[in-house]
């Protein structure tokens, strides 16, 4: 544990996994200095940055009950399979040219299409329509670049300073592209609902999530249901931010993980062969056969490869909270209002917790391996 000053803000950097678990499960308030920048990028608050715990819990319940529950996740396998086959065909075609190519744009479009089809029931045929990245994805990529610039360069934290840079006009245009695309998603979901229901307003005696296909439908139904307290219903701005963070989270993180995993498998041909043989054994060699959920649970080698990839390059590199009260931890006193940060990527390569931490070794996640696979492993962050 050590402290640094980030401009006028005191930050405590946590390096002990047990301290992190204790603090991030108990102290739920996000650090305002960091997450206010994320709010700006998202054009509003979402699950990722919401500090009002009751509101956070309500939004999380709405999203998980309709789109991220166990039955829903299993139903997505067919779509994952279809999009993966399209991606594999495109990559095979590129490989046959014998020329080097960048897989990231193809992986991004595949993940983008999967998110839109599974979470929103919207099929825009992204992989078949675009050879390079969609304008929405380019706009969100630029928004992320802006976010990183403002985090790394404290003088850009001031809006007045930031607006003097030459990126302001492009930023405004990108925000308009993002807003238009998300509004289009909501419009398509509403159109699908009108086709499915003869009467749009649901029977208020029923749980709307039973008939809704995704969380956007739940929100749109709830907005029209006079029996539901308005303070528990997502506003249009809430819905916009939640859709945006779900698309970015589902597309960008999977692109990075899959890209790194492809590189690791290319560099470690023995592991690649193990994964290949396991897939043939469990799933067979017919690419048109849709795998079952139980079959996917048998892909143990592939699972370890994914876990090791996420150790080396975690989906969440940094998690931050603000002490909402004075607390004692590890013999130190952290005052109220201090930012508490955990650098996940650093902890995943800390030799105190991992043997040969920079080495790609999926076998460290074998059941017979030591506790190192669970003690300091936070691939998706910690806490709400």
From TrEMBL:
Q: Which GO terms describe its cellular component?
A: endoplasmic reticulum membrane
Co-factor(s): heme
Subcellular localization(s) per the UniProt record: Endoplasmic reticulum membrane; Microsome membrane
Question: How does this chain sit within the bilayer?
Answer: Peripheral membrane protein
Q: Name one Pfam family in it.
A: p450
Write one Gene Ontology MF term.
heme binding
Q: Which family does the UniProt entry place this protein in? A: Belongs to the cytochrome P450 family.
**Name this polypeptide is given:** Cytochrome P450 4C1
């Amino acid at each position: 544990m050590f402290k640094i000053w980030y401009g006028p803000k005191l930050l405590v950097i946590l390096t002990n996994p047990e301290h992190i678990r204790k603090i991030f499960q108990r102290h739920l308030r996000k650090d305002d200095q960091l997450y206010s920048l994320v709010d700006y990028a998202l054009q509003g608050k979402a699950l990722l940055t919401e500090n009002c715990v009751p509101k956070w819990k309500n939004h999380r319940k709405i999203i998980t009950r309709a789109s991220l529950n166990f039955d829903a996740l299993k139903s997505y396998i067919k779509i994952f399979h279809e999009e993966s086959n399209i991606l594999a065909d495109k990559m095979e075609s590129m490989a046959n040219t014998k020329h080097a190519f960048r897989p990231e744009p193809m992986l991004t479009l595949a993940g983008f299409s999967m998110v839109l089809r599974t979470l929103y029931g919207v099929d825009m045929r992204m992989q078949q329509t675009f050879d390079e990245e969609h304008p929405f994805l380019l706009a969100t990529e630029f928004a992320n670049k802006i976010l990183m610039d403002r985090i790394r360069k404290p003088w850009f934290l001031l809006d007045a300073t930031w607006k003097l840079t030459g990126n302001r006009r492009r930023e405004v245009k990108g925000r308009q592209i993002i807003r238009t695309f998300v509004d289009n998603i909501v419009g398509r979901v509403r159109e699908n609902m009108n086709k499915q229901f003869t009467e749009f307003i649901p029977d208020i005696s029923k749980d709307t999530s039973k008939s809704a296909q995704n969380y956007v439908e739940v929100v749109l139904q709830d907005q029209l249901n006079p029996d539901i307290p308005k303070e528990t219903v997502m506003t249009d701005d809430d819905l916009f931010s939640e859709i945006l963070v779900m698309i970015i989270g589902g597309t960008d993180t999977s692109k990075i993980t899959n890209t790194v995993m492809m590189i690791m498998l290319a560099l470690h041909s023995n592991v690649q062969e193990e994964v290949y043989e396991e897939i043939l054994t469990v799933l067979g060699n017919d690419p048109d056969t849709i795998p079952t959920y139980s079959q996917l649970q048998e892909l143990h080698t592939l699972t370890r490869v994914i876990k090791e990839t996420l150790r080396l390059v975690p989906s969440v590199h940094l998690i931050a909270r603000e002490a909402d009260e004075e607390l004692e931890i590890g013999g130190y006193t952290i005052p109220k209002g201090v930012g508490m940060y955990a650098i996940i990527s650093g902890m995943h390569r800390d030799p105190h917790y991992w043997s040969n931490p920079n080495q790609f070794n999926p076998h460290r996640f074998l059941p017979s391996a030591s506790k190192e696979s669970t003690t300091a492993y936070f691939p998706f962050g910690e806490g709400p």
